[in-house]
């Protein structure tokens, strides 16, 4: 049974007006137990913000890690997305990709840093995403290396265009990536085709390693679903936050 302390969570909703996207974007912000504006906190920025909170249970896991596993308190920012246009924003071939990545780095990050006591070092910001959310996190880090070096990639959708962008990089030695993929993801049907996510992630891991990145890679029994990713999320968070 879940400890009731884990369920006492502080989650705020914010809305920002994005000049790049030409619309409002909703953010969910988790504040840790004992939150104090005079302190400073590491921060996890999540794509698919609503799903990370509802299906990934990230706020409950955060409480558990902080209260029982001696992890330093941290803040979580979930950036919500309209699932109908998600591929257009997250995939490098999407017609909203340029606007979304610019919004994320140039509007959302300054907004959060102007309102909450999050740390501003690239080593204390983590990008997290599942499927296309994992690959767009990678692309944001590649485009804004001064902002991001740490990525949680849950079954990242590293399609051909994504791999080409990674292959074009010469030095990724500053990058630290936590990658996991499910062994039952070899024939996943997405809105753009059927893909072998195990092969995509293996190939992307190799591209990253060849360019000097640090990669923690694992393949486990699991499907391309939140039922798999949710169970893997605490270990992914601990990988980065125990080092902070």
Automatic annotation (TrEMBL):
GO molecular function annotations of the record: hydrolase activity
Per its UniProt record, what SUPFAM superfamilies does this chain match?
Answer: alpha/beta-Hydrolases
Keywords, alphabetical: Hydrolase
Can the keyword Hydrolase be found in this entry's annotation? yes
Protein name per UniProt: Alpha/beta hydrolase
Pfam families given in the database record: Esterase (PF00756)
- Specify whether Disulfide bond is a keyword of the entry: no
Q: Which domain of life is it from?
A: Bacteria
The organism encoding this protein is: Paenibacillus wenxiniae
């Amino acid at each position: 049974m879940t400890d009731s302390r884990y369920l006492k969570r502080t989650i705020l909703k914010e809305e920002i007006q994005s000049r790049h996207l030409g619309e409002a974007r909703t953010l969910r912000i988790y504040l840790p137990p004992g939150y104090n504006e005079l302190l400073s906190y590491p921060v996890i920025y999540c794509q698919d913000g609503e799903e990370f909170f509802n299906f990934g249970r990230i706020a409950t896991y955060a409480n558990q890690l902080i209260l029982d596993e001696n992890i330093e308190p941290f803040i979580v920012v979930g950036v919500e997305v309209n699932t109908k246009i998600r591929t257009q924003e997250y995939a490098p071939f999407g017609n909203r990709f340029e606007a979304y990545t610019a919004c994320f780095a140039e509007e959302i990050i300054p907004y959060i840093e102007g309102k909450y006591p999050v740390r501003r070092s690239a080593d204390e910001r983590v990008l997290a995403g599942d499927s296309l959310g994992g690959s767009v996190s990678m692309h944001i880090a590649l485009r804004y290396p001064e902002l991001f070096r740490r990525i949680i990639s849950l079954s990242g959708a590293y399609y051909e265009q994504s791999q080409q962008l990674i292959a074009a990089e010469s030095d990724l030695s500053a990058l630290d990536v936590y990658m996991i993929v499910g062994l039952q993801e070899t024939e996943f049907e997405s809105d753009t085709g059927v893909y072998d996510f195990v092969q995509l992630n293996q190939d992307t891991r190799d591209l990253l390693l060849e360019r000097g990145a640090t990669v923690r890679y694992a393949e486990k029994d699991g499907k391309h679903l939140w039922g798999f990713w949710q169970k893997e999320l605490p270990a992914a968070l601990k990988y980065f936050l125990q080092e902070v």
